[in-house]
Amino acid sequence: MIPLDSLRARYLDGILAASDEAALEDLRLAALGKKGEVALLMRELGKMSPEERQTIGKALNELKDELDVALRARKASLGDAALEERLRAEWLDVTLPARPRRMGTIHPVSQVTEECTAIFADMGFAVAEGPQIETDWFNFDALNIAPEHPARQEHDTFFMHRAAGDNRPPHVLRTHTSPVQIRAMQAQGAPIRVIAPGRVYRMDMDQTHTPMFHQIEGLAIDRDISMANLKWVLEEFFSAYFGTKVKTRFRASHFPFTEPSAEVDIQCSWVGGTLKVGEGDGWLEVLGSGMVHPKVLTAAGVDPSQWQGFAFGMGIDRMAMLKYGIPDLRAFFESDLRWLRHYG
Ligand SMILES: Cc1ccc(OCc2nc(C(=O)N[C@H]3CCS(=O)(=O)C3)cs2)cc1
After folding, report:
1. How far apart are the first and last CA of the chain?
2. Inter-axis angle of helices 21-32 and 4-17, to 10 degrees?
3. Fewer CB near the terminus (10 Å): N or C of the chain?
4. Does any ligand 1 atom lie closer than 6 A to the CB of residue 322?
5. Would you say the CB of residue 286 lies under 6 angstroms from ligand 1?
6. pLDDT classification of 182: cutoffs 50, 70, 90
7. Average pLDDT of span 268-288
8. Phi-psi region for residue 280, left (φ > 0), alpha (ψ -120 to 50) or beta?
9. What's this model's pTM, rounded to 2 decimal places?
10. Ligand 1 in contact with 210 (CB < 6 A)?
């Protein structure tokens, strides 16, 4: 009688060493198949005494069950490994549907900035850019804004606070893009025709004001530029922007950086809650403007006895709200995809 232990050890080792399911199946047949070693031993039982038959028979059945469990366990782990191998080999499942790719949209602020820039480019204005963090000189002093002017207060302006002993000049988040035009004049002198679009920052927050918003300012300096030139440039701009003939109305005003100054309205009517530009007997304020103050030209290194010209400033977000009928400025910056897709 073969000692069952060596048979058991041989098969258990063989099962653990089996490298794939085919080898395992061969082992199962060799051990437990009709012609398997266990089946052959079972046939020997008939030649034994009843006592032997019972002992050996029990041992053979236990061996059969043990090998069966070991074979199933090994088959399961080989199956997992085969699946793992297949998933690794077939990482790219070309039968999967393509990932939905939605077309992006251009933000209304970017659209309006590009549109305004193009319209002014047609009238000979180049685009000037500059830093968003400015010294208080470029943001205020150069624009003839007095030291005690309320706009310099912290309730209006974001100041960069300095560590003690840091004696660099105060820096602010620019409150308008006017400093860009000072820098442009310092760089190229007169004559000059530039527009300065960009982000500006003011301490403010409500339905029509956000701490960051977008402005576009214009500057035209030459030998004999007048308010009449300003009126023409603005009427050309608004007519192109709104796609219809737009009349403007100048109302006397005051800004430290322009003299004379004028707030400019465009003709409009509110038909059933929607804005109609270029008709009706209503007027809507859209920007501020004026002839550049001599002190501002001097600060920028341009001789006011030789050169003069106009400047204006308007809110890009506000222009987008007017054109697209967007009621709340805060929605511009909430990154709500539904809003962006609707207005984009
Ligand atoms: C060198 C230089 C000299 C003068 C300049 O004057 C730009 C001007 N801006 C305004 C004005 O009213 N701007 C506001 C309109 C709405 S807003 O976006 O809140 C800012 C009037 S004149 C600019 C640069």
Report:
1. 88
2. 160
3. N
4. no
5. no
6. very high
7. 90
8. left
9. 0.74
10. no
